[in-house]
């Protein structure tokens, strides 16, 4: 997704921040009210004042964009706790939507050539030196993804002369990309351009200043009139069909899980859940390789259509395919091969269905994967242990097996729930001589609640409670 000037802001919100259209429109209202609704006072009276000083304070745009970033990337900021809102980089996950924003700035170190400058969320490496000159010049400022803060790139693409001051960062000075590529399709793709007098609306118009409703209404009417044109409608259908075909082709790839559904893979083996580092992977193949390399998973493939009826084991590792397929008639020989050729000391044999089920178990959203981090798992296990101890104490007290009891110091919620329940119970003192050896009567206020407690496990329960206390 690509954009220039205000279109650059749209590209950032829809592409980099992955906003829906409705939320992006809400954020546009925020930017309009905080920026275009608050020009410098002198400019509201003197139209030529922008020759002396930009009409809108740059700090208003920076503040508004940081509010948009905080709203649009809340989960990302929470995940990367060392990033503050104003530090979130433009670079994004390579599996997500590729976003380009056009600005006007120097394209060489000496700053002698000013031309179209493209900010990218992804790596766009230099073309091969063997390619022809014409092909090399089509690659505008190739290089690594830009890690500059998002708000700075938003300022760079929208710094229209007379309206906003230019911005300096990375040793360069940037201005509105509309100065060189007002229509980004000249650099990127096709653009639908609303006419019907929309171009006559000044860039700084936002009426009334507190909401911009009149200006937005004019834009909306012109846009609907443009979309109602039969030729425009025909173009929309043609491009929509093309986009659908592209999406269907992408949906058949592994990357689609990350791109569209935000799935990643997490190793669910106990050894990895308790490890110091988080075991998460972008693709299914990465988790499969991890299972082989770390957990010694070996795919047990049946040998079919062979004259060697006694051979029941086949090595499926790629390293073995160069010299032909290695087959074995004895598991001991296969394990010896795995140790010598692939350094697998204790292989775990799995059929294809079991391996795929294990991979499915590891597929989860990024939020679910965060809960698999060692700190989260340790906290959950600790809470489970405390809950079991507290439950054992409560059961013993309720059954009359223990008169005095202590509650674990940790687990505030457990202590509070027990303290609100136990005082309301009065144990039947005749439990020890009850005529029903396998049950106990417990009198509660205001009603009587029967509780059944096997006497066979009484000593075990008492010992468990005393040990936990």
TrEMBL record:
<dbReference type="GO" id="GO:0016020">
    <property type="term" value="C:membrane"/>
</dbReference>
<dbReference type="GO" id="GO:0046486">
    <property type="term" value="P:glycerolipid metabolic process"/>
</dbReference>
<feature type="active site" description="Nucleophile">
    <location>
        <position position="5"/>
    </location>
</feature>
<feature type="active site" description="Proton acceptor">
    <location>
        <position position="176"/>
    </location>
</feature>
<dbReference type="GO" id="GO:0047499">
    <property type="term" value="F:calcium-independent phospholipase A2 activity"/>
</dbReference>
<dbReference type="InterPro" id="IPR016035">
    <property type="entry name" value="Acyl_Trfase/lysoPLipase"/>
</dbReference>
<feature type="short sequence motif" description="DGA/G">
    <location>
        <begin position="176"/>
        <end position="178"/>
    </location>
</feature>
<feature type="domain" description="PNPLA">
    <location>
        <begin position="1"/>
        <end position="189"/>
    </location>
</feature>
<dbReference type="GO" id="GO:0019369">
    <property type="term" value="P:arachidonate metabolic process"/>
</dbReference>
<keyword id="KW-0443">Lipid metabolism</keyword>
<feature type="short sequence motif" description="GXSXG">
    <location>
        <begin position="3"/>
        <end position="7"/>
    </location>
</feature>
<keyword id="KW-0378">Hydrolase</keyword>
<keyword id="KW-0442">Lipid degradation</keyword>
<feature type="compositionally biased region" description="Low complexity">
    <location>
        <begin position="439"/>
        <end position="450"/>
    </location>
</feature>
<protein>
    <recommendedName>
        <fullName>PNPLA domain-containing protein</fullName>
    </recommendedName>
</protein>
<dbReference type="InterPro" id="IPR002641">
    <property type="entry name" value="PNPLA_dom"/>
</dbReference>
<dbReference type="GO" id="GO:0016042">
    <property type="term" value="P:lipid catabolic process"/>
</dbReference>
<dbReference type="Pfam" id="PF01734">
    <property type="entry name" value="Patatin"/>
</dbReference>
<feature type="region of interest" description="Disordered">
    <location>
        <begin position="431"/>
        <end position="455"/>
    </location>
</feature>
